[in-house]
Specification:
The protein has 111 residues and is mainly alpha-helical. 77% of the residues lie in helices and 0% in strands. It contains 3 helices and no strands.
């Protein structure tokens, strides 16, 4: 029984880590602000939920498990709201759909 519990918890942890990795790659690869937030907003909620569910199975059903359940509920509620607020603020500020310039150094004109 312990083996199945460990196996299922590690599967959930790996699935959650995979979601978070795909989200991080999506943030780096997407061309503009809106699609980057779309990639981050979807995958961080699912990734954190799966990861915390795996940790819940590892910790057992005790006070730590209750805290993990509360963290999952907090993430599920706040992450989509925060993503929506960021996108709404960008839309209100009339941020265009163009590419985001990732270069952090200033180049002289003509280069």
């Amino acid at each position: 029984m312990q083996f199945l519990l460990d196996l299922s918890s590690w599967c959930l942890i790996l699935i959650g880590s995979g979601f978070l990795l795909v989200g991080a790659i999506g943030v780096l690869r997407m061309p503009d602000f809106y699609t980057r937030l779309h990639a981050a907003g979807l995958t961080d909620t699912m990734g954190a939920s799966f990861l915390l569910a795996g940790l819940l199975l590892q910790s057992g059903f005790n006070l730590t498990g209750v805290k993990l359940v509360l963290i999952v509920l907090f993430v599920i509620i706040t992450s989509p709201i925060a993503t929506h607020a960021l996108i709404n603020a960008a839309y209100t500020a009339k941020l265009g759909m163009g590419r985001v310039d990732d270069r952090t150094t200033d180049k002289a004109e003509g280069e």
